[in-house]
């Protein structure tokens, strides 16, 4: 959806939302410790927060509109038109 021109309806609204979030990333590591007479295998895990930010755009006019979802929130196979999805209110 393109932004409305001066002659078009004044009932159109475009929202550009910026948000941030953190996700928990879990990692595993494996190692071996050697002593004089034996070896010990060790498996360890760690967790850390990975911050990310993604914009989301919403265009509305009367009772219809389009929303552009951040690509990281879309499944590999999805519809839409280049990330834009239509909706009705």
Task: Name the helicity range.
Answer: under 10%
Nearest-angstrom radius of gyration? 24 Å
Counting DSSP E segments of at least 2 residues, the number of strands comes to 4
Read across the widest sheet, the strand sequence of neighbours is 1-2-3-4
Low-confidence stretches: none
Question: Distance between the terminal alpha carbons, to the nearest Å?
Answer: 16 Å
* Shape, per Cα inertia axes: rod-shaped
Count up the helices: 0
Strand content: over 45%
Number of domains: 1
Average pLDDT level: 80
Structural class: mainly beta
Largest sheet: 4 strands, antiparallel
What is the H-and-E element order?
EEEE
What are the salient characteristics of this protein?
89 residues; mainly beta; four-stranded antiparallel β-sheet
Describe the structure.
The protein is mainly β. The chain has one domain (12-88). It is built from no helices and 4 strands. The protein has strands at 12-34, 39-61, 64-68, 84-88. Strands 1-2-3-4 form a 4-stranded antiparallel β-sheet, with no helix packed on it. It is rod-shaped and about 80 Å long. The two termini are 16 Å apart. The model has no long low-confidence stretch (mean pLDDT 80).
